[in-house]
Amino acid sequence: MMKEEIGSSVLENVYKAEERLKNVVVKTPLVNNNNLSAIYDANISFKREDLQRVRSYKIRGAYNKMATMSREDLGRGLVCASAGNHAQGVAFACHTMKVRGTIFMPLPTPGQKLEQVKMFGGSYIDVVLYGDTFDEAKDAAMRFCNENDGIFIHPFDDPAIIEGQATVGLEILKQSTKPIDYLFVPIGGGGLAAGICSVFQELSPQTKIIGVEPSAAASMKKALEKGKPVLLEKISRFVDGAAVQQVGDLTFELCKNVLYDMATVDEGQVCETILSLYNKDAIVVEPAGVLSVAALEKYKDDIKGKNVVCIISGSNNDITRMEEIKEKALLYAGLKHYFLVRFPQRPGALKTFVIDVLGPDDDITFFEYTQKNSKEKGIAVVGIALKEQKDFTPLLHNMKKYDFFVNYLNNDPSLMNLLI
Fold this sequence. Notes:
Distance between the termini: 45 Å
C-alpha cells in the first residue's frame, strides 16, 4: 500500500475485512462510563475490545491477514513475533484454519499471555521465547522465516493487519448515537491507530484522534517529531502491549497527518488507572489496554461537555503483576516512600521511631535491618505508606529532627528497581 493509495481504497478493504470477520470476532460493546463522565463532565464511552475472544483487538488483524492468504502460502508455515496479544490472535487463527505457526515472544512475557497463546493455538503452534524486548523477538522471528521459507505475520506494519484493526473504527461509528468529538487510541506499533485514522478520516473527519503511548516507550511521538520512524535506543517493558522501539513505516504514514495529538502517560498513572477501573467498575485491564483512559486527565479542559470514546484495547493481565501495579500506583500518587534510616543499636530505638517520627496515619510497609557488631548505629531500608501526600513533609522533618534520616530513595531508579 503506497501513500497515494491511502483513502477510500483502504476503506473499501476495511469493509471487506469486516465481512471476513463477521463470524470470527465479537462485536464488542460501546458503553458509557458513568464514573468518568461525572468526573470530567463529559459523555465518556468505552469501546470494550478487552471483551474480544482473545481479550484484545489483535484477533481482527491477525485473522484478516491470514484469511487473505492462499492455501499454498498458509502451508509454508506462519511466523510471528509478539509481546502477547498479536500472538494470541495468530494462535487462534492457526487453530481455526488448521495451519502451522511458530510464535516468537520476549522472555519477560507475562505468564498469563504465554499460557493463553498455547491454549488458543493448541497443537498447531510452537512458542519460542527469545530476547528481552519485542524488537529482539521480531529479529529472531525474521531470521527463522528466512531460514525456513516461512511467512511472517507482522503485528502492525501490514495493510491486511491494519484493515482488520480498522474494523474497530467501523463498529464505533455504527454504535455511537452521537457525533464523536474525541477518540483516544493506544499506540504500540501503530496498527490500531493507523486503521482508526483511515476510517475516521473518511467517515468522521471532525473527530479529534488522540494517540496515547507509555512515556517510556513513546515511539510514535518521536517519529512525529523527527518526520519518520525512529528506533528508540531504550524503552521500558512494563506496558508490554505497547513497548515497541520503532513504529511501522506504513502505520506512520497513515497516522502522521490524521492524529490530532499525541499523549504520553507515566507508568504510575497507568497503574493508578488500572486499580481505579478495577475498584470502581470491576473492569480488569492490562497496562496497554488502559492507556486511553489514563490520558483523559491531560485533556480534562478540552473534553468538558464533549462526546469522548476510549478504546480499551486488552485485558490480558497477569494477576501476579498486581502487587507491582499497586506499588507503582502508590509511588506515583506520592503515598509510598522509601528511606535509608539510621537506627541506634539499642533496645527501644524502633519504638522511638514509631512514636516520635511517624505520623498517626503513617504505616511501615517495608523494613530491612541487620544488627552490626561493634557499631553504635545501623542502617535500615524502610518503606512507609501515607494516607495523604501532605503527610510527607512532617515525616521527613521528624526523621531529620531525631537524627534517623540518611537518604531518600524514591528518586533513585537503580535502587528502587531493587525494592519493587
